[in-house]
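Hi R.,

Here's the chain you asked about this morning:
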Amino acid sequence: SSIVKPVLDDLSARIKWRSGLAIPNGIHMNLRYLTSATTMALEHWTAGSTISVPSSNGGVLYLAMSPPDVREILFERLKAYYSKKPQNYWDVLLSEALLAERNRYAISRMNPKEHGIGVPIIVNGEFLGSVGIQYITRAVTQSKLLDEYLPLLHSAADDISSAVGEELAQSPPATREASSDWRPDRRAACG
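And here is the predicted structure, written out as tokens:
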């Protein structure tokens, strides 16, 4: 929080939309921090909320940035959990994950009026989580989103990644390995 809060508060002040940090927890994403910037956002999440992997840009990024073996296990767990979803749902989700892997961002369509965009936070080569914003679709052009907001999101993710990486480098090796707060637990995804 001491690393994330100033970075995301600055991001929200610059773009005027609420931003947040989501980290994976099994087949869900946990919202660890959300800025309190007032916006016209229609969906009102709170820190501590849990969102399913398929319905969040952070979740799509989690699938995108996971090694292929972990991605496959995640998909199997998701399919078991959401057993009533048709196969084309999973095909679309895989396509979105592969696109997010290539583009290094993902867009979630929360409802017709509001979307979110997120970018990955990578620490020591592993997916830590994602930085994202919510926005009202009629208020943001595609050009503004990709040309203005996306570079700021990547910059915020890079700042968080660097700060967490530096903090880990300064901690004793046993602390780095024992810490579950800085990276997703692959066993949670796989077990």
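One quick note: The longest helix spans residues 142-170.

Cheers,
M.
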